[in-house]
Amino acid sequence: MNSRFVALLLAISLVAALAFAPGAGADGRKHGRHDSHRDTFRLTLLHNNDGESKLATGDSLPGYGGAARFATVLERLRDAADGRTSGHHGGKRDDDDDDDDRGRRGDDDDDDDDRGHRDKSRATVLVSSGDNFLAGLAILAGFESGPPWPDATVANLLDYDAMTIGNHEFDFGQARLAEYIQGVDRDIPFITANLGFDDTIPELRRLVRKGRIVPSVVVKRGGSKIGIIGLTTPDISSISSPGNVEIRADLAEVVNAQVRRLERKDVNKIIVSAHLQGIAADEALIPMVRGVDIWIAGGGDDLLANPDDTLIPGQSAVGPYPKPVADRDGRNVLVVSTAGEYRYVGQLTVDFSRWGRVVGVDDARSGPVRVSGTATDPDFAPEDPLVKALAVDPVAAFSAGLASQPVGTTEVTLTRTLGAVNDPIRRRESGYGNLVADSFLWKAQQLAAADPQVDEPQVAISNGGGIRADIPAGPINKALTFGALPFFNQIVVMEDIGCEQFRQLLERGYSGLPAITGQFANLAGLRVEVDPAQPVQVVSAAPAPVTIVTPGQRVRNLWLNNGTPQNTADDTQLVAGGTVVPGCAPVDLATVDFTARDGDRYPFTAQGLTTFTSVGALYNQALEDYIMAPASAGGLGGVVTSAQYAMVPTGVRRITIAGD
Fold this sequence. Notes:
globular, eight-stranded mixed sheet
């Protein structure tokens, strides 16, 4: 037989075999083509979520966490997974951006020798699934120094393969997010497939054009391609400050479209890195998608682990690691997640067939790996000296400078959490919530009194989600106040709010009960009685503009405190038995601009409440000034007393919740 004819028959046979190989069916779930001649390919996914600027050990939990120790644990895992003798990981990555290839990095696959020995039948990738920074001292230090911020320096030294954009990335607006990204190495892509940045967002649009922000990315390792798709919670419109960023809520279609794009590029190993605020949202979405192998669930601080995993004392898992969830085709997607704040490095080690199917999980090399700074622990990790010197120490020095500036003292420990699950500032009245709300009202009244164009407010609302850290009993300094109130929220006054409009604002504040929610309304100048058994207010779902779908009826009675909070004799009732009192006069409200702009989905705009005036103070400044001001000026004279601000208030309550 003619040799050319034999060769042709063999080629035809090979094509036919590939066409009907497992996973190559008409449903297109996986390409029939394979990316190497190996029978299997071992991938180790290293991941973390919600780092949130907790850079120093003990920022989150005493004795654990910290970016410098995280780096040490990460490098241990990389060395073991890659079979390297030394050096950092390498590889080649192509950003999934058809217009620009400048975001690509790395060397050809044959050039790995200069980074240490690598077994090319296996590879490692590192992914962050969002909330890569959070308002606080690290961010303020970055604002002072300019890019790269300390959090960006950490990202560079950890050498991520992809970083999902979370909700906290937008807390300071678009320009600040762009500044952060510009401080991160240009070959580390930021991924989000459901956000859009048009020409009206110039800072972020430029980064899109440069390939710095992409829907998904392709990481190349040893002849294999791994696709990573990013998702950002659509709730950013109400819990952060994204401005006019386009937000798609049809996440299943977004994922499926990206899977199709990746498959057209012959990518048959696909990871979704999502930041959806809780693993329940991920588990609800996965049955509507196809073609995804691994799913990182970020944003909810959900710790997945197995019985033999070593956890931080006092912590427990909410499910197994990995957790299988069936997709649209009935195939299991492996879901992984860890507790955030650099407390764990997530490690998932899987074997792929040449067709891109997961054929095994190495349980011994999978699970959360804790980051210990406790010397007596067998897994103690020393601090990486470079991360410590370039990121952790500068924040510590900056914090020390603020800590040297006294504000006053507190007789009571002001905590966000009492007990294992009770979060008073997001669930019920507390001394801490009262203190912050009082500072808003006092500061707004002080500044409005000096401005004839602004009415002095009678009441204030402080959302529980705006308080981010504890203040221990003892001396108070500016580092503590800024850590407690770290956002750049401005104190504003909104005038002439009708009583029914105001009642519906409070209905939003208590719509989450009995759950712990960020919109919980801490009050000043008011007393309210709430019945969670009554119909709850329903507002439109994010990212749609806020509208009241169903008015609430939980606010049963409401009074203005015309005298002292403990003297109710001359209080003015605004709502009685769930109905506005006839002749109820409008109120003037002090709050922060985040809330006034429909943050936490408060229905201001939906009720025509669109005009407010900034009085020229940030909310942490209001707290500081209120504590320092003399009693003659209505302040606390430098002391937060236990009599006035006990964490569990006594006497006449500002917020009375039926059945609580």
